[in-house]
Design brief:
The complex is a heterodimer of chains A (287) and B (266). Helices cover 78% and strands 0% of the residues of chain A. Chain A is built from 14 helices and no strands. Chain A is flat and about 80 Å long. The model of chain A has no long low-confidence stretch (mean pLDDT 87). Chain B has 266 residues and is an alpha/beta fold. Chain B has helices at 50-57, 97-101, 103-107, 112-125, 141-153, 171-188, 199-205, 239-265; strands at residues 8-19, 22-34, 39-43, 65-70, 73-74, 83-85, 159-163, 191-196, 208-213, 218-224. The chains are: A mainly alpha (287), B alpha/beta (266).
């Protein structure tokens, strides 16, 4: 055995292996490369799918391949949309749903974040309250909606309450997660500088937990909208949720589609607004 | 009474913790008397209670026995009397370097504007010029330590405690930071208590080195460093320096071996 063999064996370069599979026999492979289409091409593709889908739907309904009574058809939906916005309750419904969503979102997020942050003040208090918060999280809040509507009536307050119930617990738990992630050495630094508890809270705990609180905003806007709609499903005189329920019960399928479309648009707008708010807040926090 | 004149006096301070396995003696009675303007180091193996002493002096931990006397006043268990720099720099990521440095003043109620005006020239003078409006995550390790140290100095206490401030820095940066610290110390005239694992660093910087031992944490020996100041880097090669280093290393390495020998004998 030569020195080279010994080194080769030590490095795991078995000479038999290289004889069995010489380099030339190995298939030549290149790194797979994906070419990106220009933006306009992507937009065209998206438009084709949309127009194609709608046309197919319309043709299928007219040709009798699908039952237009159950599925409705794009032309009927467009007509209903025009009526809904001109002679219908569109703006009343939109503003009703929008208000309950926004108010529920603000109330739930604010109260929840404050509750979560408050656990920093006392370990005993946090230990006592924590099981209740976890219970509250595990209850399907929507199951409580009928009760909430009974207590708060069929007006706006009950919708706000359902939206608040959905957002509050998530905010509480997230803010509390922030509190728990706080570095004890950070508190030590503040106290070594002679800080009061209030100073530690304002200058350390709150800014430290802000990224956590911000991260939950986008989730919460969706939850608040769900809460408001479910509240309207149970009992309401206005709102897009009520419009959907009413249209479904009267077999006005085109109106169901219209309300769902308007609702989706509303959701997208609010989501975009919250995303913008999030980016502004993040810039202010710099984490 | 040994604790009448010095700036900082740790008078017979001891610390025990109750653990499930019994009582743990973290600190046997320790006495330290540090005159105004001195630079004093504590060296010792991990777990010898260096950080415990610091926490007690800073008022973050109530000692089981003994007192902490600052300027002749009993300061046991009171916070905000000394500047304390922990091992981590603990710069707040949402504040600019300038606003981090003034944290101590801000907490003490100095108006923001006045605090910033005081801090700005110092940032420029001590190597953080041009960094004042950056956020800590844009800074290198050495720069972050500078900011943390300036924060400690600007807290305006006569005594400052530095817990391994350069422990996480690379050797090159560490040397530069030692020079920088020496300059700050001679400019500000603070009384410094310094913890380090680095024997050479301790001797190079200090007027006095306390070597500590474990179980319980205690001071084994106090060594005066009489090398003239300002000290050149080359002084680390002098006979006197090497003798002190040898003595420190002997104290730090001998104790476990000695106890082992005793165990074997028994």
């Amino acid at each position: 055995m030569t020195v080279q063999d010994t080194i080769g064996a030590a490095l795991g370069l078995a000479s038999a292996k290289s004889e069995a599979a010489p380099a030339a026999a190995r298939p030549v492979r290149r790194l797979p490369v994906q070419r990106d289409w220009p933006t306009w091409a992507l937009l065209v593709a998206q438009a084709v799918i949309l127009v194609g889908g709608l046309s197919l739907w319309e043709i299928a309904a007219r040709a009798g391949w699908i039952d237009a009574f159950f599925w409705s058809q794009p032309s009927a939906i467009a007509n209903t949309m025009a009526i809904f916005f001109t002679t219908g309750d569109a703006w009343t419904d939109i503003s009703f749903t929008f208000r309950s969503t926004i108010l529920g979102f603000l109330l739930g997020t604010t109260a929840g974040s404050l509750l979560g942050l408050s656990f920093w003040w006392s370990r005993n208090y946090a230990a006592i309250v924590q099981p209740y918060i976890i219970c509250l999280e595990s209850i399907p809040k929507l199951a409580l909606a009928p009760l909430i509507v009974l207590v708060f009536g069929i007006g706006l307050p009950s919708k706000i309450a359902v939206a608040t119930a959905l957002t509050l617990v998530v905010s509480t738990l997230t803010a509390y997660a922030g509190v728990k992630a706080l570095d004890p050495d950070g508190e030590k630094l503040f106290y070594s500088l002679g800080a009061t508890r209030l100073q530690v809270f304002r200058k350390l705990v709150v800014p430290f937990c802000l990224p956590w609180i911000i991260s939950v905003l986008r989730v919460n806007i969706g939850l608040a909208l769900t809460g408001a709609i479910v509240g309207e499903f149970i009992a309401s005189q206005h709102g897009l949720g009520r419009a959907i329920l009413y249209a479904g019960q009267t077999y006005d399928i085109a109106l169901v589609w219209v309300a769902v479309l308007v609702l989706s648009t509303l959701a997208v707008i609010m989501y975009a607004a919250v995303s913008w708010l999030e980016s502004v807040l993040r810039k202010g926090v710099r984490q | 009474m040994p604790c009448s004149a010095p700036k900082l006096c740790v008078d017979d301070v001891s610390m025990t913790f109750k653990t499930p396995g019994g009582v743990f003696h973290a600190l046997a009675p320790v006495t330290l008397a540090i005159p105004q303007g001195r630079f004093v180091s504590l060296i010792g193996p991990s777990g010898c209670g260096k950080s415990t002493i610091f926490n007690i002096i800073a008022g973050l931990l109530e000692p089981t026995g003994g007192r902490v006397i600052i300027d002749g006043l009993d300061s046991t268990g009171t916070i905000g009397r000394v500047g304390y720099m922990l091992q981590k720099d603990l710069l707040l990521p949402w504040r600019s370097v300038l606003d981090n440095v003034i944290l101590g003043m801000e907490i003490q109620g100095v108006p923001l504007k006045a605090a910033r005006e005081r801090a700005l020239p110092l940032l420029h003078r001590y190597g953080l010029g041009g960094f004042e409006y950056l956020y800590p995550n844009a800074l290198s390790g050495g720069m972050r330590q500078r900011a943390a140290l300036l924060r400690t100095l600007l807290f305006d206490t006569d005594v400052i405690l530095l817990d391994e401030p350069f422990g996480a820095l690379d050797a090159q940066t560490k040397l530069a930071m030692q020079e920088w610290l020496m300059q700050l110390w001679s400019d500000f005239g603070k009384t410094v208590l310094f913890v380090t694992h680095d024997v050479e660093e301790a001797i190079y910087l200090s007027d006095e080195v306390h070597v500590m031992g474990t179980r319980p944490g205690r001071i084994i020996e106090t060594i005066a460093v009489a090398l003239p100041r300002p000290r050149a880097r080359m002084s680390a090669l002098s006979q006197e320096f090497l003798a002190i280093k040898e003595r420190c290393l002997a104290l730090l390495t001998v104790s476990p071996a000695a106890s082992e020998t005793m165990n074997r004998a028994a």
